[in-house]
Target: Sulfotransferase family protein
Amino acid sequence: MTNRRVVLVVGSGRSGTSTMAGTLRTLGLHVPQPEVVADATNPKGFGEPRWVVDLHTELLARSNVQVSDARPRAWLDTGTTSGDHATRERVAAWLEEQFAVADELVIKDPRASWFLGLWRAAAERCDATPSYVTMLRPVTEVVGSKQMYYGRMGAGSDQGAVTRTAAWVNMMLHTERATRGQQRAFVRYGDLLDDWTQAVFALGEAFDLTGVKTAMAVDIAEVHRFIDPSLRRVTMTWDDIGVPDRLRELADETWQALDAIADDDSTKNQEWCDRLRTAYAAQYADAEAFAHSTVVAQRRTAAAQARREAAEHAPQRSGADRVPHAVRAMVPPAARQKLRKAMGRERPQGSA
Model:
């Protein structure tokens, strides 16, 4: 059996994915370099390979999909974009370069869930075993954290909360479906902060990660310093986030289903997620139907704006240019020449 391992840390951003990736890195797994630089939103680092982030950003742009996209059909668009042979070869070639550095890799990026088929195919081409860790955090905390660190969306806070809540449901349910049948685990962010050793060492055994299973005392002590319970800086509830009741109920049940899978990854709980995914698609279709007039109006406004900008940038024609050619031809050549000279548009000698 191959010793090569690719652990993909997936799930919604602001769910503890950076904490999990940083923990695995500290215990010996390799995060491909260079990494995205830490900032105020994540002072202890993101644990994200820059190459991976750039790749996913490129593929999302080609798919016309956002990082947090609430549309169910967005999964079809990203799957189509990333399913071509050239892209899979490109990722496989990059993975081979990383395996020259280490046999056990950890790849984390909130965009990764959109391209799990791509990473699975690339890992298999490299004779590597892919594994998936989905981080779970209550939706209100995820949305609240995004509102706090990434800013408001749209004209008001409620609009941003609705969009982000819907995107969370879409992301989490499809991530569960995309990893089904694979080597996977669901880890609650709260459990990771309370006692990371139980969750992470269980992963080490389940995924057969040498780096985790053979971690030294100095590495374990370093993780204790790295994981700070105060990292859970946002603990909002539905009272702090205004979303429609139907969406709130669907988000709550999605959390309950995923929370159940964390303890029991059974067919029963997977089918529960299937029913929720169908219900979400139907609810989103209703929302699109209600908003159709708004979408049409926005398209008309954008088209009118484009026409105005095109008119402003169009080259201005002189009065002479607007005179029909047949009329200009009736003017004797000598007179035309005098007119051009007077207007500063005299042609060089020898021209017609």
In short: The radius of gyration is 28 Å.
